[in-house]
Amino acid sequence: MNTSNQESVLELDNVKFNYPSSKKRSEWLIDIKSLKVKRGEKIFIYGPSGSGKSTLLNLLTGILRPNEGQVKVLGEDFSKLRSTKRDHFRGQHIGYIFQSFNLIPYLSVRDNILLPTNLHKKRKSNMSKLGGESFLNDIAKVLGIENDLDKKAYQMSLGGQQRVAAARALMGSPEIIIADEPTSSLDEDRTEEFLKELIALNEQYKTTLIFVSHDSRLKKHFDRSLSLAEIQTYSEQSTNGDRK
Amino acid sequence: MLFSTLFKITFSSLLHRKFTSFLCVISIALSVALIIGVEKTREGAREGFTSTVTGADLLVGARTGELQLLLYSLFHMGEAVNNIRYSSYQDIANHRAVAWTIPFALGDSYNGNRVVGTNENFFKHYRYRDGQNLEIADGREFGNEIFEVVLGHQVARRENLRTGDQIIIAHGLSQTATLTHDNLPFEVVGILGPTATPIDHGLFVSLHAIEAIHIGWETGVPNPEKTQLAKSITKEDIEISQITSFLVGATNRVMTLQLRRMIAQYDREPLLAIIPALTLGRLWEVLGQAERVLILISFCVLIVGMVSILIALYTSLNERRREMAILRSVGASPFHLLSILVLESLTLVSLGLAMGYGLLASSTIWLIPYLEANYSLSLQLSFLTAQDLKYVSIVILFGLFIGLIPGLKAYKQSVQDGLSVTT
Question: Which of A159, B19, B60, B213 has the fewest CB atoms inside 10 Å of its own CB, making it the most exposed?
Fold first, then answer.
């Protein structure tokens, strides 16, 4: 526990959560003693389906509020913020990549990528600081979608869609990117390729990456890997636990 | 959250579902055109109706129902029960409170159009709509010759008559009249301009002419020898005995009620005097009921249109769960999703409104001449009147409400789903 608060981007402290409709009230669906993620860290969370993965992600993004404990993102305590504030905060500071169907089908690829910057002034100004449109083009080039920007989203292949989603998550350089099994719809070669590009971009823009997957083979790409089952049952030993 | 982006999302989404959106817009457009169209027709009808005669203070005739007197004297509907003596007319016309009078002698017709016996006062004093007086579009008023007729605009148009033509007038009002004044043809000397009032359907001759064509009809059927006499008769030889009714203009509005009482108590014969504007208003209240039913039906059509929007938006929600989750991941709150759906509904409704208006405006331009010609209905091309704005705001409020239903559903759904929709 030698990391100071300023350095941790994400901090979970005695977080307990269960849905109000749940029958087994005595058992918590999520029960995490402590979890800290440092700025710029690339962390892999192994979570097979049914392990409470989506619930955890909804907690980390401020969609859900824990029943007990604290979820602190960039020093902001989610349990103290109103839901609209949490929504706004998420839009400003977190880029999110879904497992699949990341794009709004009726918007162009470009408009999909620009959604967060068009919705949030802060991310827009971040983007202009980094060169505006040319920033978008740089990222598109790295991801190999520079020629697809004016296509409609539904015209993109699955792999293409995931790349567009990655570009959107990075747009306006949010502090944190959360990826929920973004490679599960891709074959092995494409998965490798996509991960390399994503990690390269993360390093370039010094973003914190939280990557959740049920495919433990992917953990080799990350600074640190945790299993959801582990962090759930007993507290994490230290922030530099399973470091590669 | 920047609302311009929400707008963009709304429009793109509607464009994406072009066909459904188009159908929704069409159904709103049709119902809006129907509602405002019915309303305009209603206004036009009322306007045309109540402005049939303006400026006249009293209408006087034999004692009968007030509505009957109005209907047969001004609307050419029904028949007079009794005539009044010409001497009574003259007596009242000479009263000091009376500024002018227009006599009407009714009872004959031409192909179903009423022949009205009157005098030069008709052209001088008759006022309709906002005080317009009659204009002769072609020719002149009837003059010194007895057998001269001035045609209402539609009579000339439909019967294809021009000045100089000769016509035969039928005795009685039936369209299939067998008794005609065929030995006494009239010459068309003038044609009135269009008024969009029953005047368009009348034929106007002098009181002398009415008297002249009935010489020899004392028994109810023509006596050939006697009717021949009329041919060579001059105005001076004719003594007018009776008329049907007459309009009165008072020297002073204040005198009207006094005059009315005086006429009601007239001791030489039973008379009835009505205030045309009041009776017209009362008559309209009766006729207006039908229009109210039409408005109600139009509103039902509007509701059907609104429900089509509701169905379109509501059924799209399930397939849009993904989209909602994506929007939430980039910082949209459930409230923003609600606003997107309300915006979509409002956009469809507004487009429908605009289209309905365009539809109505263009069809009105086409229909106005037809309606004026065939129904004496004068529609005003006045758009966005206070009345219209009332309907526009009702429709927009409906749209808002209709958008709220799927909007609230989206709100609930997105709170439930968060970022995890597995579809």
Answer: B19
Tell whether the model's pLDDT for residue B60 goes beyond 90: yes
Number of H helices, E strands in chain B: 13, 15
Would A49 be classed as within a structural domain?
yes
Residue labelled with tokens 């067998």: B178
What is d(CA B90, CA B169) in angstroms, rounded to the nearest whole number?
Answer: 27
How much of chain A, in percent, has pLDDT values that exceed 90?
Answer: 7
Residue B115: phi and psi, rounded to 5, are -100, 130
Q: What share of chain B is helix, strand, coil (3-state, %, to 5)?
A: 55, 15, 30
Residue A16 belongs to a domain? no
Q: A98 and B333: CB-CB below 8 Å?
A: no
Inter-chain residue contact B331 with A92, CB threshold 8 Å: yes
- Token pair for A80: 């103290």
pLDDT, average across residues B13-30: 90
Instruction: Give how far B30 is from chain A: nearest CA, Å.
Output: 28
Residues 320-379 of chain B whose Cβ lies under 8 A from any Cβ of chain A: 322-323, 325-336
Contact between chains at A119 and B335 (C-beta distance less than 8 A): no
Chain B residue numbers with beta carbons less than 8 Å from the beta carbon of A58 are 418-420
CA nearest B307: which of B399, B410, B409?
Answer: B399
pLDDT at B35: 85
User: Minimal CA–CA distance to B203: which of B104, B124, B108, B114?
Assistant: B114
Q: Are B241 and B83 in contact (CB under 8 A)?
A: no
Domain that holds residue A197: 40-65+80-233
The two structure tokens encoding residue B321: 């769960």
CATH assignment at residue A56: 3.40.50.300
The C-alpha atoms of residue B240 and residue B118 are separated, in whole angstroms, by: 11
B183-221 pLDDT per residue, tens: 888 999 999 998 888 899 999 999 999 988 888 787 777
pLDDT digits (tens, 9 = 90+) for A126-150: 888 887 788 888 888 888 888 888 9
Q: Which helix (H) or strand (E) holds A97?
A: strand A94-97
Q: Within a domain: residue A27?
A: no
Q: Distance of alpha carbon B250 from its chain centroid, rounded?
A: 28
pLDDT of residue B118: 95
Per the CB < 8 A criterion, the answer to whether A119 and B332 are in contact is yes
Which of B206, B120, B109 shows the shortest CA–CA distance to B155? B109
R_g of chain A computed on alpha carbons: 18
Beta carbons of A131 and A158 less than 8 angstroms apart: no
- A215 with A53: CB under 8 angstroms? no
Query: B137-140: which pairs have CB atoms within 8 A and are 24 or more residues apart?
Result: B137/B191, B137/B192, B137/B193, B137/B194, B138/B162, B138/B163, B138/B190, B138/B191, B139/B163, B139/B188, B139/B189, B139/B190, B139/B191, B140/B189, B140/B190
Q: What is the pTM of this model?
A: 0.73
Shortest CA gap A120–chain B (Å): 6
Helix, strand or coil for residue A14? strand
A196 in any annotated domain:
yes
pLDDT tens column, A24-46: 556 778 888 888 888 889 999 98
